[in-house]
Amino acid sequence: MKKHFIIALAFSLFTVVQFAKAQQVPNPKPPMWDDVQAIKRYDGMFAPPQHPIIFTGSSSIRRWDDAQWIFANYPVLNRGIGGAVTNDVLFYLNDIVLKYQPKQIVLYVGENDLVDKRLNSTVDSVYNRTMKLYSAIRAKMPEVPILYIGMKPSPSREVIVPMELEFNKRMKDFFAKEKNTKFIDIYPLMLAKDGKMRPELYVGDKLHMTKLGYDIWEKAVKPNLIK
To answer: Where would one find the signal peptide in this protein (predicted)?
Structure first.
C-alpha cells in the first residue's frame, strides 16, 4: 500500500511539473537574432581585419555588398542588418561594432524607425534613440571617429519626407558640436536639380538603391574615411 502511495505521489508530481512546463511560453528570439548569429559564424570562418572601419546600420548598409571592394584601400567591414531599427543596432552593439575595436564607424539607421508601426515613432523618439546609441558608443569608445549618414529620400516613403528633413537637421546641428564626428547630408545629393526624387537611383521597391545610388554614397563617404 505504501509503495503504491509513493508511486502515485511521484506520478502526481511529475504531472504537475509537466503541466507547469506546458504553460511556459518560450522566450522569442530578439529581432535580427539569426542575422547576428550568421555574422558570428562568418567571423569564425574568416577572420575580420584588425581595427576595421565598421559600416553598420539597416539594409541600406547591409545591401552595400561591394563596399569592401569599392573601398579596397581601407579596412572596411560591412556589419549592416537588413530591416534594423535604431534599437536593434543598440541591442547588438557589442556583436556588430564594439568587439571589432574599429578605427572608425560609418552608421546609417533610423529611416525604418519612422515607418515601423510597432514603434509609432516621432522625430523626437527617433532622435532620443539615436542619442542612446551614440552615448553607448561613446561610453566604450570616446574618441573613435563616427560618420553618420543622414536619412535618404525614398520614393516609397514620401509620406515621411517632412520627418526625415527635420530629423536630418537636428542630427546635423548635434554633430556640428561633437568631436570626431561627421554628419553626411546625403538627402540633397540624391535629388534632381528640380528637387524631385530620381527613380533611377532605386530598385523596384523604390526603397533600396541601385548602383547609381550607391555611387552617390561612395563619393560622399570616401573622402571622410581613415586609412
So the answer is: 1-22
